[in-house]
Each structure stands twice: as structure tokens, then as C-alpha cells.
Give the backbone structure.
Amino acid sequence: MEGRKSKRLSVEVGCWLVEMDGATCLYTFDLSDEGVAVITEDPLPVGRNVILQFFTPRSASAVTLKAQVVWSRLEPEGAMGLRFVELDARGRETLREFMRLLLEQRQRERPVR
């Protein structure tokens, strides 16, 4: 997408979409410090506000973020894009640190040629 301010990381990380009637486990496929894209069989409508939770390797409790659905699709695979809202400096730094850890892990797992 044009106009993105933040670097996106293609990564599969488990997260939970928390709603009043429970939580749904989702998997990310694209993460930045401004938003995330997730795979889901039941994407929500654009404009819907949601709560997203995930664990980082350094967090003892779930990181909880408010987000808004900015795009939603059923085909070719159900997915939706969430933009983080009301994200303070601490939350943004938590996301950046998480992305750094994921990149380091990916580099360690790459086979040496």
C-alpha cells in the first residue's frame, strides 16, 4: 500500500481478537508499529473498533491494543487490516521491540548457504 509510514514485517504470530462474547484466535501475516493484517474466516466490517491481544517473548501478560478495521475481505482468503488507535509511546515501543525480536529470530532460523 502506498503512503505507509512504517516498515511492515511479514510474520505469522498468534493473537486474540477480544470481544464481549469471548476471544477469537487469529494469525497475523503483516505487522508494523501502526497496524496489523490478520487471517480470519469471519472478517469484520470496516470501521469496527476491536481489542487485540498478543504475547511477546518478554511479556508476562498479554499486550492489549485498541484497533480499528480499515479493510476487510473474504476472497481469496478471509482477512482484515487493523490500524492501532490510541497507541501511546510505550505501546509503540513494545511493538517495535517485538518486531526486532521477530527479525532476530528469523535471521537465526535461516539456513547458512
Notes: The first strand starts at residue 14 and ends at 19. The two ends are 33 Å apart (CA to CA). Strands lie at 14-19, 22-31, 35-39, 49-54, 63-73, 79-85.
